[in-house]
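Q: For a teaching session next week I want to show students how multiple molecules come together into a single three-dimensional assembly. I've collected the sequence lines for a complex. Could you give me the predicted structure tokens for the whole thing so I can convert them for display?
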Amino acid sequence: DAKTTQPNSMESNEEEPVHLPCNHSTISGTDYIHWYRQLPSQGPEYVIHGLTSNVNNRMASLAIAEDRKSSTLILHRATLRDAAVYYCILRRSSSNTGKLIFGQGTTLQVKP
Amino acid sequence: DTEVTQTPKHLVMGMTNKKSLKCEQHMGHRAMYWYKQKAKKPPELMFVYSYEKLSINESVPSRFSPECPNSSLLNLHLHALQPEDSALYLCASSSYGQTYEQYFGPGTRLTVT
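A: Of course. Below is the structure for the complete assembly, covering every listed component.
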């Protein structure tokens, strides 16, 4: 399974945009990029996923580099509720099990 | 209903006890997962069930025994655990398709004494 690298921690101010980076230099052409987050004392929750093109949903945007070796999760206006551990995960599209291998993730602190 | 429920929320057991964790979903998902999460670490995949059949066992010790009695239920039977097995046990489910978006339960906090 291809590996992802994320900063251990990041800080943001409330109501400002947050850009969470992820490096995945060994990504293969069939790997989807998934983002999950885990709020304190909760199970992880799905945020967004993409393959090649940038993606938007109600929670966030995902910007994927042209060579796909990196991606950035964008929270447009951080709230205190967005303080969580954010995981960037690669999932092989040929896998028929949905298997996810979590990396260490980025702990996001949001300051009021 | 996009909820995955897990019971109990907390469990304390001795090393000679036998106990079970339960997970339930009513989203019609045919893939279900068990993860183990130690404090301040990411979740680690333990088992994957696909259409009620075990499809992945990530070399988990036999003192953990999963069971999928039907498409909505997933159990994890515990026997002769060690103190290092104390962790948060997370259950998840997903449908098949491009997304494989996994829905996680809140977990069972297990303490082995």
